[in-house]
Amino acid sequence: MCTGGCAKCLGGTLIPLSVFGCLANILLFFPGGKVIDDNKYLSEEVWFFGGVLGSGVLMLFPALVFLGLKNNDCCGCCGNESCGKRFAMFTSTIFAVIGFLGAGYSFIISAVSINKGPKCRLDNAAWDYPFHNGDYLTDKSLWNKCLEPENVIPWNLTLFSILLVIAVIQMILCVIQVVNGLLGTLCGDCQCCGCCGGDGPV
């Protein structure tokens, strides 16, 4: 596949992943699918907006850049004829690194939250984090420690796991684009540049 076409495919995949990441993060503000009385009872990792910022907003920029590479003019970019497809592909690697860092941020927040467990009301009426080092992941009987919000453990665990998976996929796609972008920088895009069987040189 040509480097521009590959980038377009990656960009088209990143956009729905970004949307799903944002939605998962928003749903975390409604533990157990319910509105809680005071936001201070939410797990603090929810407020770090890993899905909205990391896998969402920061990922949209590289995704849009990747989508535009396929239609980039080989003879120039930004009105500068000395620029061209190779520079555009090199620029895409920078955006891919930005996307990787954003996804990495979401990955770290999600991993920390899964290991830490949710904030919930205990039997002494205090709101705290009752779990330690992910012990609740292997011992479901510990879930009884959380009295409110109802079903907060499976809710948080599911959504943060989704964010974790999305972040991993996004990081992989960004790494692929770094490689693809470097190849495009070296030989241009095959459909309009001669490296891969086109009609003429870059």
UniProtKB/TrEMBL annotation:
Subcellular location, record wording: Membrane
Residue ranges crossing the lipid bilayer per the database entry: 12-31, 46-67, 87-108, 153-176
One Pfam family named in its UniProt record: L6_membrane
Keywords: Membrane, Transmembrane, Transmembrane helix
InterPro entries, per the entry: L6_membrane
Family, as annotated: Belongs to the L6 tetraspanin family.
Protein name: Transmembrane 4 L six family member 4
